[in-house]
Structures are given as C-alpha cells and as structure tokens.
Design a protein that fits this description.
With 203 residues, this protein is an alpha+beta fold. 18% of the residues lie in helices and 41% in strands. A hairpin with a 2-residue loop joins strand 10 and strand 11.
C-alpha cells in the first residue's frame, strides 16, 4: 500500500508548482517550481495513473506539508503529524504517526528538493507544446532510476510525468489543476462522514 502511495505522491510532486524561469535550464525550472509551490497556497489536482499494469484515476489536495489523496478506493489524510489511511474495500482506517523518513517518502512537499541531491538534470525532447526535463539517478540509492516531466509552454502547467524504478515504471497525466483555498479540516479524517468503519490506531 505504501509503495503504491509513494508512486502517486512522488508523481504528483512533479505537478505541484507549474512555473518556468527565463533561463529555461532544467535546474532553474525546478528551482522556480519549488519557490512557487512554497508560496502558492493550496492546490487541487486531478490525475490518471498507470503503474504495475494497473490504471486508476485520482485526486490530491495539498497545502504545505499537508495532503489528502484519493485514488481507487484508497484515501489518505496527513495533517502534518498524524496520517489516516482509509481502505474502502475493508471499511477500515489505519491511524499512524509516521516517522520523518516515512513522511519524506510519502509527502510531495518533502520531496520537492529531491532533485538537488543524487540526480543529474537535463533537458529532454521538448516540443512546441511542452518543455521536457529528465532526471537520472546518479547512484543505486536514488529513489528512482529515471524521471521525465513535461510542462506545457503556454499554460506553464505540467502535463505528464514518467518514473522508472528497477523493472517497474509509473506514468501520470494531469486531468485538472487549480489553486484552491483549503481549510485544515481537509487534511484530517472525519469519522462522522464514515459511520461504521473500523478504526485501527497503530500509534
């Protein structure tokens, strides 16, 4: 479950802050994306995802370190301290207090600066429609062997991302993207909306 969520959250980080700087070098584009995400407020992103032979549609809302992601019967809330994972098929919610390393693996906010260490960035096969950025892991400890991100030149919003890890790969396509004012309650599990579910506290 966490592995699948990691693919989703890392993929979505590529869509978290659509902006380009004048230099149009891969690292300057990504630096600007980090800056814009940190100052841009909440975002609501719809996406389709293909991984390990499966395809699913989902949605993620993010504000700073907080997020709420729903995909294929699985919803996760994280308020900065506590994580709730609801599995619709089992009608249960797992409650955890993730470690710093677990948050770093699953939270797109924490992963925004990943490209600064352990990756070589270059421009890919850009077209008249999009800029393409390619990240190649420089050692075996890199989270992914290869990452490709395409950003629309006109709207400055990401369109597509591809991640390769070992023999597996993940692709994600943005279907909607909008800035949104989000309350703290959007990142907390509300048991009143899920009557009868089994709450398993693993803290």
């Amino acid at each position: 479950m966490k592995k699948f969520l990691f693919f989703i959250f890392f993929a979505v980080l590529s869509f978290a802050a659509p902006a380009l700087c004048a230099a149009n070098t891969p690292t300057s584009i990504l630096d600007e994306a980090v800056k814009k995400f940190n100052s841009g407020g909440g975002v609501n992103i719809g996406f389709t995802l293909s991984a390990e032979g499966n395809t699913a549609s989902g949605n993620i809302r993010m504000l700073g370190k907080k997020f709420c992601c729903s995909v294929d019967g699985l919803t996760t809330w994280f308020d900065g301290k506590i994580m709730w994972t609801y599995v619709k098929q089992n009608e249960e919610v797992n409650v955890t207090t993730p470690s710093a390393s677990e948050v770093a693996q699953m939270n797109p906010y924490m992963l925004l600066s990943l490209y600064k260490k352990g990756y070589k960035a270059s421009m890919g096969k850009s077209t008249n429609v999009y800029h393409e950025i390619v990240l190649i892991g420089e050692n075996s400890g890199a989270a992914f062997k290869k990452i490709v991100v395409r950003i629309n030149k006109q709207s400055l919003r990401p369109m597509y991302a591809y991640m390769e890890k070992g023999k597996s790969s993940t692709t994600i396509t943005v279907t909607s993207y909008k800035n949104e004012k989000l309350a703290d309650s959007a990142f907390v599990f509300n048991k009143k909306k899920y009557p009868g579910v089994d709450i398993i506290d693993l803290r």
